[in-house]
Amino acid sequence: MSYGSIEPRHAALLFFDTLNYGYANPPDDGRDAVATAKANWVRLAAAARALGVPILYAMADHRPDGADIGEGYSDANHEMQPWPDPEVRRRPHAANLSGSWGAQVIDELAPQLEDYRIPKHRWSAFFQTHLELSLRARGANVLILCGGATEIGIASTAYAARDLDFDLVVVRDGTHSRRPMVQGLFIDHVFPRFARVRTTDEVIEMLSAGAAAG
Length: 214
Prior knowledge:
This protein is α/β, with parallel strands linked by helices. It folds into two domains: 8-61 and 97-213, Isochorismatase-like (Rossmann fold); 67-95, no CATH class. The protein has helices at residues 20-23, 31-51, 131-137, 150-163, 180-189, 200-213, and strands at residues 11-16, 55-60, 116-120, 142-148, 167-176, 196-198. Strands 3-2-1-4-5-6 form a six-stranded parallel beta sheet. β4, α4 (150-163) and β5 (167-176) form a beta-alpha-beta unit. α2 (31-51) runs parallel beside α6. The protein is globular.
């Protein structure tokens, strides 16, 4: 293992919440950014498959009655709007209920039989899921992370990966937030403290270099 390369046999590619509810039909004001991210996801998936890197999909998975959603107090909802009634916070995620169209991976990434689906009930893809077990079983200690939203699930999963001693690579142009300022904050001022932050091109080059060396 070296700073400038990634050995495919020790790596895994994790797509976080690359699901229909967020990315199949993005709003007009975010369409270009989503299109760029999706194109990079497709390129990363193709490179991973060509080099034998396992692909995993962390997928939001919620009950229709909302009974698996945390009830902790917060000042704002996911849209950063104050709660109309702070005492009424737990509600179903209507757009990504378990088994619904919204909770499925976007068509562009089309999971294959050999891929891993990781249903999750909290922001971190590691929390009470089989993600860590699946990575350890494959001998993968380098986690390539992409998807959205950067300040929510990507950040939570990145912190967890760090605390579990995974070697983390965050894909700069393969992570997405609807808030560009927040995206820049995490990509430029948070993640470099405990991960390598690289573009899609750089990640593919690093995997190719690791394959050649190995």
